[in-house]
Design a protein that fits this description.
GO terms for molecular function: pyridoxal phosphate binding; transaminase activity. The protein is of the alpha/beta class and about 350 residues long. About 40% of the residues lie in helices and about 15% in strands. The chain has 13 helices and 13 strands.
Length: about 350
């Protein structure tokens, strides 16, 4: 079972002898409201399109993304998930020195090691509630003469987010390429935190988004990147396969990016549930809870009466899955992360956490 990307529900359900739908997965950060009903209907209504090659230019899909992100359609490149774009961009830029804002998603370091890049890590610290001072970060980038900066915004697992103005400040005060992974950006205020509005004016900025988390579609493998750099655009297009987005993913994407009811409802409901979880977790004396701008929350068992791994094992018996964060460099065995599910499941998890921690002496 993977320790770096949340729970493998297939392995875990087989091990426990359960249907995977019986498990409440608080580890994978996927929208609990599911996916766009209009997008799914579009697939059903156009199922015979599987017999036709996709449009190699993906005009309709890119047009939907352009309107959704308020960006120039010429600046969009497509990938079969955000991970493909992360890999492609790092290989193309081929950095000699890079900065990772840590702790963070393990895939960045994996891809940087493939190009034999020297990796510098700027660690956000629990003493500062995992908040990052942008000026200190800029100084770190320049002192180490790094040519690539990798930021997950909001950051997984800490929940910290740079504002778009802070991202702009980094671009204006360093000479490095900046890759901003906005996988979780739609769970927060995009007007304040998203960097898509900066793409047209900064040729060294590459913004990546996926559809697995907010749009609840990890199964269709659709991601997109935004850059005004024509060399980067051409290199990515030449790097990935022709027709790399399958017909059904393209059809669903064309529709779901325009489904304002789904988008608005998801934003409203998940914000309320995140605030509920932050409030309830903070009421548990054993926990230190950190603010998050994502749809996940990082917590630490500050009394150390139980490890996150042991807590996870006990919760699995109750059919809840949380993320033990010990594998994130910079965190220890007492950190865990949960995401927002529907309200009833969130209530049940809180009750279970309180019960478990109360009985652990």
């Amino acid at each position: 079972m993977s320790t770096n990307h949340g729970a493998n529900l297939y392995d875990l359900s087989n091990k426990l002898g359960l249907n995977k739908n019986e498990l409440k997965d608080f580890s994978s950060n996927i929208n609990p409201l599911g996916s766009s009903s209009l997008g799914k209907k579009a697939i059903i209504d156009n199922i015979d399109m599987v017999s036709i090659y996709p449009d190699p230019n993906y005009y309709n899909l890119k047009n939907s993304i352009s309107e959704y992100c308020n960006c120039n359609i010429k600046n969009i490149v497509l990938g079969s998930g955000a991970t493909e774009l992360i890999s492609s961009f790092i290989e193309i830029v081929n950095p000699k020195k890079s900065v990772l804002l840590s702790p963070s998603y393990s895939e960045y370091e994996k891809e940087l090691k493939k190009v034999k890049c020297d990796i510098y890590k700027f660690f956000s610290k629990k003493e500062k509630k995992f908040k990052v001072d942008v000026d200190e970060f800029i100084d770190y980038i320049n002192i180490n003469k790094c040519d690539l900066v990798v930021i997950c915004n909001p950051n997984n697992p800490t929940g910290f987010a740079f504002s778009k103005n802070e991202i702009k400040k980094i671009l204006e005060n360093t000479s490095a390429f900046l890759m901003v992974d906005e996988t979780y950006i739609e769970f927060t205020d995009t007007q304040t935190y998203s960097s898509t509005h900066l793409v047209d004016n900064f040729s060294k900025l590459f913004v990546i988004r996926g559809t697995s988390k907010f749009f609840g579609t990890p199964g269709i493998r659709l991601g997109y990147g935004l850059t005004c750099n024509p060399q980067i655009q051409d290199s990515i297009i030449n790097h990935i396969d022709l027709w790399n987005i399958n017909t059904l993913a393209s059809i669903m994407g064309e529709v779901m990016f325009t489904d304002s009811d789904f988008i608005d409802t998801s934003s409203s409901v998940l914000k309320c549930e995140r605030e509920f979880l932050l409030r309830e977790l903070s009421s548990i004396e054993d926990l230190e809870v950190y603010h998050s701008d994502g749809n996940f929350i990082l917590s630490q068992i500050k009394t150390k009466k139980i490890t996150a791994s042991k807590l996870r094992e006990i919760l699995i018996e109750k059919k809840f899955i949380i993320r033990d964060c010990n594998s994130f460099e910079g965190l220890d065995e007492y950190f865990f992360r949960i995401c927002t599910l529907n309200h009833d499941d969130n209530v049940l998890l809180i009750e279970s956490l309180k019960d478990i921690l109360k009985n652990e002496e």
